[in-house]
Amino acid sequence: MNPLSFSAINTFDTCPKQFHHLYILKDVRSKTTEANLWGTKCHKQLEEYIKEGSEITEPAARHGVPYITAARTTLLGCSERVEWKWGLSADWEPAEFFGDPMLRGVIDYLALSEDQTKAVVVDWKFGKKKEDLRQLSLFALAVFCHFPAVGKIRTIYAWLKTGDDTPTVKDYVRDDIEILKCEWLGSIRQVEERLEVDVFPPKPSGLCRGWCPVDSCTHYVAPRG
Q1: pLDDT for 66-116, tens place per residue?
Q2: How many domains does the chain have?
Q3: Which of these, 86, 84, 81, lies nearest to 50 by C-alpha position?
Q4: Which value, in Å, is the radius of gyration of the alpha carbons in the chain?
Q5: Is residue 66 part of a domain?
Q6: Could you list the residue range(s) of the whole structural domain that residue 50 is in?
Q7: How far apart are CA 129 and CA 168, in angstroms?
Q8: 35 lies in a domain?
Q9: pTM value?
């Protein structure tokens, strides 16, 4: 099985057929929009600001600076990782992102206290606010598995599009790790079961109206105009 990510599992939950085309057959690609390109630009500016102190020109990206300042203030002497690529093996050991992990992902911003007992994870969000903690739970699991001394993690969705939305914050402690493993193993098993029978049924939704890249699906409705 190819390495799974949050995006892959989330796509599977949304529509197994779309997952099959995007991640197994790989005969379609997600649509690139102006919003996607803008979000990528903002991510890049925040990355360069953290690494080099570069100027941020995008107003939305500037809204991310207070989160970085807060992490640096709270975790004095912290080490930072930006666009950190991580992987986890089937036995929940650290694995290389480009190796053959069971799970992998990218964390936008990770700050670790000097003694590596505390961590802050921030995920930059440039779209509409959605209260879904699953991605944060996966990031927490990844950090716990990669850094055995970490006992507490604050995870944050930073909603930066307008700067008016309050962040989504979830704290995790190391005692949560077994629950997190069970939750994500359940999601992985669902994908594996579909792979075994090689059946990926469509799950019609509003995304079928021009938003899904699988335009060969019988439920696909071409956008007007």
Answers
A1: 999 999 999 999 999 999 999 999 999 999 999 999 999 999 999 999 999
A2: 1
A3: 81
A4: 19
A5: yes
A6: 6-208
A7: 9
A8: yes
A9: 0.94
